[in-house]
Amino acid sequence: MPGLSKAGGAEGAAAEPLEARIGALAGLPIGALRQAWSAAWGAPPPKGARRRLLMLGIAWKWQAEPHGGFSRSVERRLAALEADFRRQSAAPRPNGHRSGAERLPPGSRLIRVWQAARHEVEVTESGYLWRGRCWASLSSIAREITGTRRNGPAFFGLRDGDAP
User: Fold this and answer.
1) Containing structural domain, residue 55
2) What is the pLDDT of residue 145?
3) Which residue has the higher pLDDT, 138 or 9?
């Protein structure tokens, strides 16, 4: 990787401006981006991370170094959010409900229009009711509707914060 040192920085900060280093990330192959991530963060990139995430993470880290990164209060808040997330992820889920769907009480209705057809799913105690049939997951319903593998909660709008 021309211009990148083992520490993930420039071979001389004055020799190559930060903006140019960040701009050069777009031209790097994915293997070089993974190496740059590891150098910048001191750990391998997340499994399955795509180019855009790698480029954004490296660029953020490079910018944070000279500017000090997050304030202590932001670091504390992020740590608290991560701890909450980990606690929620470890909590047992009601039968048949995953992700955003566990917040929905039985009797809730999810409506999605797909290719001009209206699909209404009712949340039950043990799963979901769609077209008179019980389903264990929203993903299986989404797959049936679209003919392709889909994330059911995302397909029905439960991943973007709109669900109650």
Assistant:
1) 1-91
2) 92
3) 138
